[in-house]
Structures are given as structure tokens and as C-alpha cells.
Amino acid sequence: MDAKLEEELKRQGYSLHTWSNGPGFWYPVHDHSYHKIIVVLKGSIAFYLPADKKEVPLQAGERLLLPPGTEHSATVGPEGVTCLEGQR
Fold it and tell me: So what's the pLDDT on residue 48?
């Protein structure tokens, strides 16, 4: 993990943890009551934002910010994914 990135996110008030899922894992549409940032560390994942009718594919090194109440679903790519997640 990039120590500078972790430090930057903590300074911004995020609580951080990492998680991983295998290829094809799917999260149904849901939302959160907090600000969420996802940084892909390894592999890939595609988020779908129903309100915008938009897919946001992410690969290692890319990030997505989700404001509170943003509905989203996600599908893990063919190599699986490991992400750094921040919540505030």
C-alpha cells in the first residue's frame, strides 16, 4: 500500500481498511450514510451508478468518491480485486 496515499486520506478524516473479493463477486445496489472513497490496489472492479445510468470501471491506482446517499452496485473484475476503503 502507498504510505503517502494512506497518510493523505487519514489527514482528510477517513477511517481506512482494505478488503478483497474474488472474480465476478457482485454487490447489489445500495448506499451509505457516510462519505466513501475506494482506491483499487490490485485487480479491477466496475461500479454502476443508477441515478446517472453510468458505469465506472476502476483498475489498480484508480479511485472513486461516493458522497452519502449515492446508490451504487459493483462487479469485481476477472482477476479479483483488493481495495483500500475510506469512510468519514
Answer: 98
